[in-house]
Write a structure and sequence with these properties.
This protein has helices at 2-22, 182-186, 226-234, 241-250, 252-257, 425-432, 441-457, and strands at 34-39, 42-47, 55-56, 62-66, 77-79, 90-92, 118-119, 132-144, 148-152, 159-165, 173-179, 206-207, 221-224, 259-269, 288-293, 295-298, 307-310, 313-316, 322-323, 329-330, 394-396, 400-402, 407-408, 414-415. The chain has 458 residues and is α+β, with helices and mostly antiparallel strands.
C-alpha cells in the first residue's frame, strides 16, 4: 500500500518543484489579492498587494507606420541581397499573399519556415534619407518585465532610436540610441548596459553593440536590456528582488522608467554593409523586421491580479475597492482615506492599501465590518454561506442585511444599544451567543503541516 502513496507524493513534489522554478523564491508571486481567514473576532479578509502575470504584450498592441505607405509591394518591387548585389531574387507584391510583407508579420508566430517579416520599400529616393517610424500602442499603461528584442531579417540599421511615451503618444522621450558610430550619429560617447550603475541606471545611452554585422544570424537582434537594469538592484541572477521592489516602491522615477503606454522605433539609416552607398543598385537597401518581443504586464498599481482584453482595450480587474483602467482611484463610497498605490513590501505579501468605506473611521484591519469589499465583480456584503447575517437577520440581494429588532451592524452582529446601560439582558446574552465558525484544531494542524512535509520530502 506504500507504493501508491509514494507515487502520489512524487507527483506532488514534481508540481511543487515546477511551481518553485517558475520564479526565484525572492520574487514573490503577488498573484493573490485577498484571502479569507479566521481570527478571534471571526471571519475576516487578509488583503495583499497583487499584480497580473507577465505575458507577451505584442498580442494586444496596435501598430502604425510613418510614412503610412512605406511598406513594400505597392507597386511590386524586386530586392537584392545586401551582401551580394547580383542576388536579386526577392520579390515583394502587396497583392499576392505569399509575396506580401505587411506590418502584422512582425508579431506573428515565428515557428514557420521560411520566416515571415515586414519589409519597407527600398532606398529608391536616395540621397533623401530612408527613415521609418514604427509606433506600438497599447492604450493602457504597462510595466516592462523583460528585454525588448527586435529581430531584423535585413541588416540591422546603422542608426536607430527607441523611444517611449507615458501619455499615449502625446510626448516622447528616448529610451536608447543605436549606431555604428555614436559620436558621429548622435554626438554621444558609446556605452553599454554593463557600464550603468545604480546611480546612472536612468541615463539615456548610445550603444554600438547592435548596429554592426549583417551576415550572421546572431547579428540580427537589437535589444533594450531591461533585466540588466533590474540586476543593478536585484543581483546578476535577480535573486534579491526585495531590493529592487524597495527601490520601485520609493522611487517614482524608477517605476516610470519601466512603465510605458507606447513604444516608437525610429529607423534612421538602413544597413549599407559599412561601404559607400551603391547608387546604381539602391534595391539593396531597406528595412525588414521578422519579430518584435515586448514582455510585460498591465499596470494596476498592485490592486489587481488579472487584466482583460475586451473590445480592443486592456483593463485591470480591480480589487481592494479600487476602480479605473489602472485601478488608480477609489470606488464610489470608498473614500474613507485617500487612494494609494499598493506596496511590494514587506515581502512576500506586500501591503494592499485598500480603499475603505467613506462613513468609516480609521480602520487598522479589515474584518467582518468591512466585508462589503469582497468580490471581484461586485461588492458582496452577505450571503447564505460564509457571510451569514447574524441574530435572525436576512440577506437582501447580497448587498445588505435586514436585521431583527434590537440588532445592528453590517452583519447584524451587535446589539443596537442607544446609550450606556440601555442594553437589556436578553440582548447582551444574544450578542454573546453570536457564533463565528472556526476550523477545528486537528484539521487546521493537519492542513498546515501537510504542505511543509511534502516540501521537505521533495
Amino acid at each position: 500500500m506504500l507504493w501508491p502513496v509514494l507515487f502520489v507524493l512524487q507527483a506532488v513534489c514534481t508540481s511543487v518543484s515546477h511551481a518553485m522554478q517558475h520564479y526565484p523564491a525572492a520574487w514573490g508571486h503577488y498573484d493573490v489579492c485577498k484571502s479569507q481567514i479566521y481570527t478571534e473576532e471571526g471571519l475576516a479578509w487578509d488583503y495583499m498587494a497583487c499584480q497580473p502575470e507577465a505575458t507577451d504584450m505584442t498580442k494586444y498592441l496596435r501598430v502604425a507606420l510613418d510614412p503610412p505607405n512605406i511598406t513594400c509591394g505597392d507597386p511590386p518591387e524586386t530586392y537584392c541581397a545586401l551582401e551580394n548585389p547580383y542576388m536579386c531574387n526577392n520579390e515583394c507584391d502587396a497583392t499576392t499573399e505569399e509575396l506580401a510583407h505587411p506590418p502584422e508579420l512582425m508579431f506573428d508566430f515565428e515557428g514557420r519556415n521560411p520566416t515571415t517579416f515586414w519589409q519597407s520599400s527600398s532606398w529608391k529616393k536616395y540621397p533623401k534619407p530612408l527613415q521609418v517610424n514604427i509606433t506600438l500602442s497599447w492604450n493602457k499603461t504597462i510595466e516592462l518585465t523583460d528585454d525588448i528584442v527586435l529581430t531584423f531579417e535585413s541588416g540591422r540599421p546603422e542608426q536607430m532610436v527607441l523611444e517611449k511615451s507615458l501619455d499615449y503618444g502625446r510626448t516622447w522621450t528616448p529610451y536608447q540610441f543605436y549606431a555604428t558610430d555614436c559620436l558621429d550619429a548622435f554626438t554621444m560617447e558609446p556605452k553599454t548596459a554593463n557600464d550603468l550603475t545604480q546611480r546612472t541606471l536612468l541615463d539615456i545611452i548610445c550603444t554600438e553593440d547592435y548596429s554592426r554585422g549583417y551576415v550572421w544570424k546572431n547579428d540580427k537582434t537589437v535589444r533594450f536590456e531591461i533585466k540588466d537594469r533590474f540586476a543593478l538592484f536585484a543581483g546578476p541572477r535577480l535573486h534579491n528582488m526585495a531590493s529592487l521592489y524597495g527601490q520601485l516602491d520609493t522611487t517614482k522615477n524608477l517605476r516610470d522608467f519601466f512603465t510605458i503606454t507606447d513604444l516608437r522605433i525610429k529607423l534612421l539609416k538602413a544597413a549599407t554593409g559599412a561601404t559607400m552607398v551603391d547608387e546604381n543598385n539602391l534595391s539593396r537597401y531597406f528595412y525588414a523586421i521578422s519579430d518584435i518581443k515586448v514582455q510585460g504586464r498591465c499596470k494596476c498599481n498592485l490592486h489587481a491580479n488579472s487584466c482583460v482584453f475586451d473590445k480592443g482595450k486592456l483593463g485591470c480587474e480591480c480589487e481592494h475597492n479600487t476602480t479605473g483602467p489602472d485601478c488608480s482611484r477609489c470606488k464610489r463610497h470608498y473614500h474613507g482615506r485617500a487612494w494609494s498605490v499598493g506596496s511590494y513590501l514587506p515581502i512576500p505579501k506586500g501591503t494592499a492599501n485598500i480603499c475603505i468605506p467613506s462613513n468609516h473611521g480609521p480602520v487598522h484591519r479589515a474584518n467582518a465590518s468591512s466585508l462589503g469589499v469582497a468580490n471581484r465583480n461586485q461588492a458582496r456584503v452577505c450571503d447564505n454561506a460564509m457571510l451569514r447575517c447574524q441574530n435572525g437577520g436576512s440577506c437582501h440581494h447580497h448587498q445588505r442585511c435586514h436585521c431583527s429588532p434590537g440588532f445592528t451592524g453590517v452583519l447584524c452582529e451587535r446589539a443596537s444599544c442607544q446609550g450606556p446601560g440601555e442594553c437589556g439582558d436578553d440582548q447582551l446574552s444574544a450578542r454573546a451567543s453570536v457564533h463565528h465558525p472556526r476550523i477545528s484544531c486537528p484539521l487546521a494542524l493537519s492542513l498546515a503541516v501537510l504542505p511543509l512535509s511534502i516540501v521537505s520530502l521533495c
